[in-house]
């Protein structure tokens, strides 16, 4: 199952009679296709979980796109890798008979999810962006009217400046997305508040 498409991945089929959209789980730097499966199960019990591994290696650690330094992204690679990921999602939807997923991304995974929203908006039904930054300096015009997006930022995050996270939320709103941006106590790591807010937001979709 995990190697038959363009990205190494894991699929957990939906269970029960859930009508939840599937989750596209996008790990942070150094994660892999198993990394966010427990999180996905906690915040969307019963939903199908599609979890690809990033195809870029940084010092042996998987990522979804290259960066030039901490917080400085190779934007040409962001664009190329977002296209590859969108193609993978289309392959997986056909192979596994899935509707459009909601992305659940952490850090690097949240950033590639943001890039998907702008560059390939048809790929996602919505997104939960955990500790996300602007993936592109000047995002292209996109029609995100009504697209639900939850952004959860850490007030003391040493990696994502507060101004950057707010700029991300504002830019998505300007493109028409229905954005809920929450700033939580804590840093770049996730806490119980993240899980509770993500679970409640996903349940309300």
UniProtKB/TrEMBL annotation:
A Pfam cross-reference name: Abhydrolase_2
Domain of life (superkingdom): Bacteria
A single MF term (Gene Ontology): hydrolase activity
InterPro entries (UniProt xref): AB_hydrolase_fold (IPR029058), PLipase/COase/thioEstase (IPR003140)
Residues annotated as domain Phospholipase/carboxylesterase/thioesterase: 14-202
Record-annotated membrane-spanning stretches: none
Protein name in the entry: Phospholipase/carboxylesterase
């Amino acid at each position: 199952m995990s190697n038959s498409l363009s990205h190494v991945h894991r699929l957990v089929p939906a269970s029960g009679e859930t009508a939840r959209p599937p989750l596209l789980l996008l790990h942070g730097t150094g994660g892999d296709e198993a990394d966010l499966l427990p999180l996905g199960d906690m915040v969307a019990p019963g939903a199908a979980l599609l979890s690809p591994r990033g195809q870029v290696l940084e010092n042996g650690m998987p990522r979804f796109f290259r960066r030039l330094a901490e917080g400085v992204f190779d934007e040409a690679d962001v664009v190329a890798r977002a296209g590859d990921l969108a193609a993978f999602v289309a392959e997986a939807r056909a192979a596994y008979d899935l509707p459009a997923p909601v992305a659940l991304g952490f850090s690097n995974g949240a950033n590639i999810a943001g890039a998907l929203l702008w560059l390939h908006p048809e790929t996602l039904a919505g997104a939960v962006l955990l500790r996300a930054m602007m993936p592109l300096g000047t995002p292209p015009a996109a029609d995100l009217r009504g697209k639900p997006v939850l952004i959860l930022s850490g007030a003391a995050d040493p990696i994502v400046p507060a101004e950057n996270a707010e700029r991300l939320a504002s830019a998505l709103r300007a493109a028409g997305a229905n954005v809920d941006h929450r700033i939580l106590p804590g840093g770049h790591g996730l806490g119980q508040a993240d899980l509770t807010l993500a679970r409640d937001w996903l349940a309300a979709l």
